[in-house]
Amino acid sequence: MTTLNTTSDMSAVGALATGESWIELVPAVHGDPRQISFPAVIEPRRHHGVWVRPRLRRNVAEAMCEWLNLVYPTDPDWYPLARFEGDLLVVFTGDSAHHRHEIAAEVDGRYPLGELGRWFLSGPTRARRSRRCGARRHPRQPSEGETLVSCDPRTHSRNVFPGRVEIPADTGRCVVILRPEVADAVADYCTRANQDLPDDYPLVHFDGDTLVHVHQHLRAREGYLPWRIEPGADGTYRIDSDEWIFRMAPRKSEGIPFSFRLHQPRRGTWA
C-alpha cells in the first residue's frame, strides 16, 4: 500500500463528548512518541476478550485517518491506512480487495470500527497529561482531620497523600476523601506509574472537573466503562468503590511496619 493523503486536522479530536472514553491503538513499538488517544463511544462487547469496539464521531474518524497516515510508514505491516470517500470511512488492512473495509455512519452519525484494530481503553494523549493545578510537588502535609493514605504501600515513601477517612455507619466501608489538589496529584502519580507498570497501576485523569479512573484489569471485561467520580459540593472527591484500593500509609509500631487496608475487593475483582 502507499500512504494515503488526508486533509483532516488532528487538533479536531478535542475533548470527550457525553458518553465517550479515551482509546488508543496498540502501538507497533512501546513508548512511540507519535502515539495519541481518541475519544469514542465504547460498545459493551469486546473482541478477542480484550479489545474494545469503538464508535467515532466524523471529525474524530478524520483525525484517526490523519494519524494513521503519519504512523503507517514506520511499520506498514502493523498499521492500517484509512481515508474518507464521500461519507464512507474506508480502512485498508492490506493490498487485496478483501482488505478494503467500508464503514458507513450509523443513525447517530458515528462510525463503528467493530473488530478493526486492537483498541484499548486509555487516557488522554500522554503529551497532554499534566497536572491541572501546575504544582511541581505532590502535597504531603495533612490538613486537620486528614491522615496519610497510599494506593500502593509497597512504594509508600514516594506514594503517600493526605486524605480524610470516613466509615459510614450504613455500610461499614472505609471511604477516602481527597481535596482537589490531592486528587490531581494522585491522578498524576498513577498515570505516570501506569506507563512503566501498566499491570499494577490504573490510569487516572480529569475530564473537566470529573476524576476518571480506568482500572488496569477490569477495562478488559465486557461492559466495563471507566469510573467517573464527580466532585462534591465542597470540591472534594470520594473514593468509595472497591475498584480503587487505598491503604493507610505504613507507619512503625514498636519498630514493625504495618498498614491497614481500607477497601476489600469484591469477589472476582482484580486487585
Give a structural overview:
- The protein is mainly beta and about 270 residues long.
- It has two domains: about 120 residues, no CATH class; about 130 residues, no CATH class.
- The protein is about 10% helix and about 30% strand.
- It has two helices and 18 strands.
- The protein has a five-stranded antiparallel β-sheet, with helices on one face. A five-stranded antiparallel β-sheet has the order 15-11-10-9-16.
- A hairpin with a 7-residue loop joins strand 5 and strand 6.
- The chain starts with 20 loop residues before the first strand and ends in a 13-residue tail after the last strand.
- The C terminus is likely disordered.
How would you summarize what this structure contains?
11% of the residues lie in helices and 29% in strands. It has 2 helices and 18 strands.
